[in-house]
Design goal:
This protein has about 240 residues and is of the alpha/beta class. The protein is about 35% helix and about 15% strand. The two termini are about 15 Å apart. The relative contact order is 0.20. The structure holds zinc ion. The site of zinc ion (ZN) has 7 residues, from loops.
Length: about 240
C-alpha cells in the first residue's frame, strides 16, 4: 500500500496534509493533562483555556501558558515534521499544510504558510480589538503584557474553549481541501471538528496515517497504520 500512496504523492499536483495531536505526541509534546503538574495540578485546563478565565484572572491564565510554552520549547520537531517542510521547499506551492496543533513544531521545522486552525501558542494577540495606541512591540512587560495607554492585554494566540476557529484560516483550509488531488490525514482520530469535515470534502484521494484506527478509515482511499515520523519521510521522498 505504501507504494500505491507514493505513486499518488508523485502524481498529485496539489497535496493537502492535515495534522493532529498524534503528530505532536510523537515528539513528546505534553498534553493538557501532562501540564497539570505542581502548582497547576489544582486547576482544570478547561477552566483555564477560556476567555472568561482570562478576564477573571489574567495573570493566572498567562502564567499557565508561559509554563506550557516552557515545556513545549524543550520538544523538537520529529522526522515527520521535517519531511513535510523539506517537501514544501523542494516543491513550492504543491503542498498545503493544515494543523490542529498549537505547538508551532511545523513552523519550527521550516514549513511555510502553515494553516494553524487552533492558533500558535508562541504568538500573542490583543484580548480586545486593538486601538491605535496598542502596539504589541511596545507592550509593557508583565503577566500578561499590556498597553500602557488603554490597558488592553496581550493573550496567547490560541483558540480557547467556546471560541470560533479563525475565519480566514478555516476558509483557506476548506478551499485547499476542495482543490486537492490528495489529502494525507495524519495523527488525528477524525472525530474532532473540523478534521472530519475537511477530509470528507477533499476533492482527491484521502489517506489516513495513524497508529490506531480512526473514524475516517471507512471513507478513506487508503489507511496506513503507523507513525508519522516513520511513514511521512518514506512517502514524501522524491
Ligand atoms: Zn492601547
Amino acid at each position: 500500500m505504501n507504494e500505491q500512496v507514493r505513486a499518488w504523492v508523485r502524481a498529485a499536483r496539489h497535496i493537502v496534509v492535515l495534522t493532529g495531536a498524534g503528530m505532536s505526541a510523537e515528539s513528546g509534546v505534553p498534553t493538557f493533562r501532562d501540564a497539570q503538574t505542581g502548582l497547576w495540578a489544582q486547576f482544570d485546563p478547561q477552566q483555564l483555556a477560556t476567555e472568561e478565565a482570562f478576564r477573571a484572572n489574567p495573570s493566572r491564565v498567562w502564567d499557565w501558558y508561559a509554563f506550557r510554552r516552557e515545556m513545549i520549547i524543550k520538544v523538537e520537531p520529529n522526522a515527520g515534521h521535517r519531511a513535510l517542510a523539506a517537501f514544501a521547499r523542494r516543491h513550492p506551492g504543491r503542498l498545503t499544510l493544515i494543523t490542529q496543533n498549537v505547538d508551532g513544531l511545523h513552523q519550527r521545522a521550516g514549513s511555510p504558510g502553515v494553516l494553524a486552525l487552533h492558533g500558535n501558542i508562541f504568538e500573542d494577540k490583543w484580548l480586545d480589538t486593538p486601538k491605535s495606541c496598542c502596539n504589541a512591540h511596545a507592550a509593557v512587560a508583565g503577566s500578561p503584557p499590556y498597553c500602557d495607554r488603554c490597558g488592553n492585554m496581550l493573550r496567547p494566540n490560541v483558540v480557547w474553549f467556546g471560541e470560533m476557529l479563525p475565519v480566514e484560516i478555516l476558509a483557506a483550509a476548506e478551499d485547499a481541501a476542495r482543490a486537492c488531488d490528495l489529502m494525507l490525514v495524519v495523527g488525528t482520530s477524525g472525530v474532532v471538528y473540523p478534521a472530519a469535515g475537511l477530509a470528507r470534502t477533499a476533492a482527491g484521494k484521502v489517506v489516513i496515517i495513524n497508529p490506531e484506527p480512526t473514524d475516517l478509515d471507512d471513507t478513506a482511499d487508503a489507511v496506513l497504520p503507523g507513525k508519522a515520523a516513520e511513514l511521512l519521510p518514506q512517502l514524501l521522498e522524491d
